Recover the amino acids of this structure.
């Protein structure tokens, strides 16, 4: 196994908290939820759309909060005078002790009064050193695979490195292996500061959702040269955090909370609860209009700073609570939908949809898939498929002109974003170079309905009538 000789060297693990340690004092007042940020993240739209029914709150979803120790402390204060953690089962796993204000604030954004998922009531808190070593990844015992994760979501509001490429690679591969094997979501933060490089741990992993800041004040770009899978774009998306302090630590749990909300909304639907399906819905639902410079290309699926765009909880919820739509060469899917399936080189997938007559639409479509990592007697063997996504016009069920494509050779997401599509039939087509599970999500949102010529004539006649008779009555 690569880097095995390093086991005899002193471990040089560096963990960096994503905010300055003294940002929050123990007596500092709790921030109320920021209405502007909630609206920007689509939560206000979700509440309005579901009204009078209540939104999902993450009830029944189990989470793990992984914290880097501050002065040896990495646990939350369960006796906060705000009472926001009352009624929750919060367990500090072995090696976790002492109150960390950073952990308190992450907890508020993940399952407390700043959260979109305050119904989360069962939380495990890991110390990051313990989680990396013998607590979960089992990095310090290479003969063992990672522990089995029985919980739904892991939140990682920390960054770090072993200061050694081989060891960082192993940690990333172990995390990817665990996610694919156990089917949980891992939401990870990038570092603060637009000039800081992407941290090796954990944003360089394939199977996580990496989170940055809508302000652009977080690390971004392509994954680290030297690590396996270099050249991929991170973060995957960004969130607004102007109301609570513009820090990646608190952007990350907002995406974790959104994931919990989506998982609860899809209880009983195993395909919708797959980590790839949740990731596809969140990224396909992200919005771009906030960022005039947002761009992508056929070989660059998302923006180098803002990823797929800004978190929009309402869009993600609409997508993942719509009907699952199967690929077909002889029927259309709904304009908004998703699918979870497996693909092989011998089976292309087609999703035909219509933009109604007299309408135009904006399309956001995204496919994602996990890296597979085999484990055999301590040897990790990573493999990653390559999926291409084509978008074309269609007559009937025969694709016509290629409009756009997403064909990155390194990323494990592909993304199409087109605005102002005129009426007609279109098709999203997937192809792969090897067998893999995948999830695809799309939203062809109607943005206008153009009156038909007959309707325009009637409208014009009405105006003439009002102009003539309205004048005579004065």
């Amino acid at each position: 196994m690569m880097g095995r000789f390093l086991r005899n060297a002193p471990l040089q693990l560096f963990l960096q908290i994503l905010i300055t340690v003294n940002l929050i004092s123990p007596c500092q007042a709790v921030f109320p939820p920021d209405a502007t940020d909630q609206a920007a993240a689509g939560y206000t739209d979700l509440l309005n759309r579901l009204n009078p029914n209540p939104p999902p709150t993450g009830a029944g979803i189990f989470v793990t909060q992984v914290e880097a120790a501050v002065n040896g402390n990495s646990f939350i204060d369960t006796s906060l005078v705000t009472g926001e953690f009352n009624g929750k089962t919060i367990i500090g796993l072995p090696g976790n002790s002492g109150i960390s204000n950073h952990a308190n604030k992450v907890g508020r954004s993940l399952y407390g009064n700043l959260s979109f998922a305050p119904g989360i009531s069962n939380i495990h808190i890991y110390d990051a050193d313990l989680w990396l070593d013998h607590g979960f990844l089992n990095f310090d015992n290479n003969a063992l695979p990672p522990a089995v994760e029985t919980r739904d979501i892991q939140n990682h509001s920390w960054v770090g490195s072993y200061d050694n490429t081989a060891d960082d690679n192993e940690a990333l591969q172990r995390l990817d292996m665990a996610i694919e094997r156990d089917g949980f979501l891992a939401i990870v933060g990038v570092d603060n500061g637009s000039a800081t490089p992407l941290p090796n741990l954990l944003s360089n992993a394939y199977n996580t959702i990496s989170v940055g800041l809508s302000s652009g004040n977080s690390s971004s770009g392509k994954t680290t040269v030297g690590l396996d899978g270099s050249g991929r774009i991170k973060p995957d998306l960004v969130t607004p955090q102007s109301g609570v302090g513009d820090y990646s630590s608190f952007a990350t749990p907002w995406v974790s909370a959104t994931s919990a909300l989506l998982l609860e909304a899809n209880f009983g639907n195993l395909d919708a609860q797959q980590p790839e399906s949740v990731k596809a819905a969140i990224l396909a639902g992200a919005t771009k209009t906030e960022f005039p410079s947002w761009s992508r290309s056929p070989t660059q699926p998302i923006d180098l700073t803002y990823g797929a765009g800004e978190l929009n909880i309402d869009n993600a919820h609409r997508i993942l609570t719509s009907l699952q739509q199967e690929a077909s060469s002889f029927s259309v899917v709904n304009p908004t939908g998703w699918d979870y399936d497996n693909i092989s080189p011998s089976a292309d997938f087609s999703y035909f949809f219509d933009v109604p007559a007299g309408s135009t639409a904006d399309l956001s479509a995204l496919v994602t898939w996990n890296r597979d990592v085999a484990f055999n007697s301590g040897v990790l063997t990573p493999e990653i498929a390559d999926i291409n996504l084509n978008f074309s016009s269609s007559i009937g069920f025969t694709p016509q002109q290629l409009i756009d494509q997403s064909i990155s050779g390194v990323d494990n997401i592909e993304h199409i974003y087109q605005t102002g599509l005129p009426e007609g039939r279109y098709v999203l087509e997937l192809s792969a170079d090897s067998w893999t599970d995948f999830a695809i999500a799309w939203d062809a949102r109607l943005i206008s309905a153009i009156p038909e010529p007959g309707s325009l004539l009637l409208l014009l006649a009405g105006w003439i009538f009002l102009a003539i008779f309205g004048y005579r009555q004065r």
